[in-house]
Every structure is written in structure tokens, then in C-alpha cells.
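Review form for a predicted model. The reviewer records the input and the model, then writes brief findings.
Reviewer: anonymous (R2)
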Amino acid sequence: MQYTFPKDFLWGAATAAAQIEGGAFEDGREPSIWDVFSRIPGKIKNGDLPDISCDSYHLYEKDIEAMKALGLKTYRFSFSWSRIIPDGTGEVNPAGIQYYKRLIAALKENGIVPNATMYHWDLPYALQIQGGFGNRDCISWFTHYAKVLLDNFGEDVDFWVTFNEPIALYVGHAYGFFAPGLKNEKYARQCLHHLLLCHGEAVKLFRTYGFSKAKIGIVVDVWKHYPDRPGNAEDEAYAVFNNEIAGYGMFLHPLFLGGYSEELNAYLEKNGMVPQMEEGDFETMRQPLDFYGLNFYNGLYDNAEEIRKKEAVLKAGGNYQDQPKQHPEAVRDVLHMLVEKYRIQIPIYITENGLPQEDGPLEEVLDDRERIAYVEQVLIAVHQAIADGIPVKGYYLWSLMDNFEWSAGFSLRYGLHYTDYQTGKRIPKKSAGWYARVIRENGFTIP
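Model under review:
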């Protein structure tokens, strides 16, 4: 069967500064929370550090050559706050500005549409020791940073994203799995409240520029949970908790419907975690947006018995290995939920989607046909959603190349290109050739 996408559909790939740039302490850049977190023993698999990673700070031209070979229409990247403003609030770093000017100019020269994220998890460490997002002053810190970006890059960036996957902030402050490595859920809830205010103020600032073409939005990942046994009260309760209280509902409700959901409000009140807030906060958060970015990787099924088994193993100090089944078809349901439940009527872009491989011998990693099969199934579901009338306007595969995958370090490989971390060489995988054909043909055929 032939799956052909709309003529103006944007095909892209995505990356993030902290994962690919390297140059961690060069040309005036100061540490981010991930530079510090990665140095805490046991936090990153194999003790990997992001100091060099893909070295895109020096090799961005090679990255663009890879994009050209793929035929990418658009490229999603992020700015490093501590490369732009090393201490977070003070002097602007000219070397940082020039790096991104060169990158954006090279993209546009090659007909590749820039999609830039202001914040992709890498807060300057200098701000973290002042309370980070738990300090309401972060609203002015972030707005100042956004102004520096808009003053310098403005209309040169077609798509502006305020925040990528705000849930990472929750994971890093409530569970300690991500930077900054804290375990205080009440504090995490306060941080999330402030983050959404930062987003709202940045959008308000953006509107004052009156850009003719540049658009602004936010990226929220959705890992939708379903009860493994519909009708089972425990499974149903776990799904509600993981969606509304510890998942996407924390963000989508205040962003698009206004205020926190009934489920979340009840949980916060019961557990004494209601954030400190001021009058007008929810109005600030709920700003009209130009587009919504959906990061989708999987749908998940909650089984209370399996969850208890896992918790028992972990509590006893064991290592519970459970690779969830892939449910690429869930993206169609998620897209319908965005429109029907959250009333999102603006263009939607799949801003991340991909499948990891374990690191291994080069020939095995290059033969990534499992990734191809998975992405095909996702794209079939996206194609069906478009036929349903859902306004999906583009797709970004994660990632352009293997990179520093946060707490997994370099052990997981998501790239269309294999990255040799010793030499910096990028080698196209089987999926790169496949994706280039998809872009060239604006679709694909399944026999």
C-alpha cells in the first residue's frame, strides 16, 4: 500500500545541544546542570560524560552535510543557555552567539528550515545553586534569556520552541534520575509551576516583536498509559495516575484548558504539595500558540500485578529488566486525544520519534532494520490520523546521529548515523538510506 503525505509536509530530524555539541568548557561556556550531574558517581551509565559527545560545536558542517544527503526539509536543535549567557543572567557570550549564527546561516543556505528550542533540560548550574526553577525569580531569568535569543536570531528561526519535554524537570527534582538529581516531589511541583510561567512569559515577549514568519510553540511528550486489563480498578487507577498526575496532564491541562485538572488538584491537596502561586498565573500559562510539538515514542499498558513485582525487586536492590512492548499505533489515539480532549486546533508536528539500539559491533548497529520497521508503523498511524482530519504538518526523527542519551550515556544509539565517539566520524545506517527515500518520495510503500 502507498502512503503519500501532504505536499507541504516537513520531514526533519532532531537533536539537542547538551547531547551533541560537546565543547563543554570552550569559548566562555560555563557548566550546565547536566555537566555537573554527569560527574556524580553512578548517575550516568558507564560514567560517560557529555564533554565532547558528537563534537558538533566544531563539526556542525559535517552535520549539515549529513542533513543534505538525507534531503531534510527541517532541522530541530536547541540553544545551550550556558553557552549564550554563561552565568545564566549576566553578560552575553559573543562566541556563543556567533556559533549559532553560523549554524542557522548554514541551515538556511542549504534550504533547511530551522526549528530551535530555547530550553532542552540544560539549566546553567550557576542558576541551579540559586534555587533553579524552584525560585520564582527564574521567570525573569528565562525571559531575559529568551529576549537575548529573539534579539539575535528572531526571524532567522522559523519555529521557536520554549521548552522541550517539561516532565524532565519533574523527573530530575522528584525522582533524581535526571539532573539536577533531587528527590523532593513537593519542590518538583513548584518547579513545574514556575516552568509553565516561564513559558507563558516567553510567548508574551515573542508576540511583542511582531515577526511576520516566525512561529512559537511548546513540545510536550505523551507516553499515554492504558489499563492492561480494562475494567480492573487497580490497572485503571495506575493509568489515571501516570497520565494525569505524573504525566502529560500536568502540562496539557494548564496550557490548553486552563488550570490544573481535577485529578491533579485533588492529589496535590491530599499530599500537601499545592504550589505557591499568584493571581493570574494560570492566565499567563495559557497563551495562544502557533503550533504544538508532540514527542511520541510508545503507548504503555499498566498492570498492577506487574508493577508491584517490579517495585518489590527494586526495593530489594535488584535490577528489574522489562523492555515494554512497542505500540507505535498509539500515536493515532494520542493525536485524537490532543484535538478532542485538549482542544488543540493549531498545527501539530511530531517533534521527536525514534527507537534505540544497544551499543554493539559496528556492522550490527548499522543494520538497524528494526528502527525502520518501527518508524514505518508510526508513520502509517500518523498518515491515518491526517486522513482523520488531524492537522499533523511534519515529522522529526530522533535523532540525526547517535549522541549522549542522558542517564544512559552513550550506551543507547538512536541515530540515523552511527557516531564514532573517538574520531567524530558519522556513518549512515541502513535507516538513513530508507529515510532519504521517504523524504524524496514524500512517503513510502508497504508491499
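Findings: The radius of gyration is 21 Å.
Further findings: The first strand starts at residue 2 and ends at 4.
Recommendation: see findings above.
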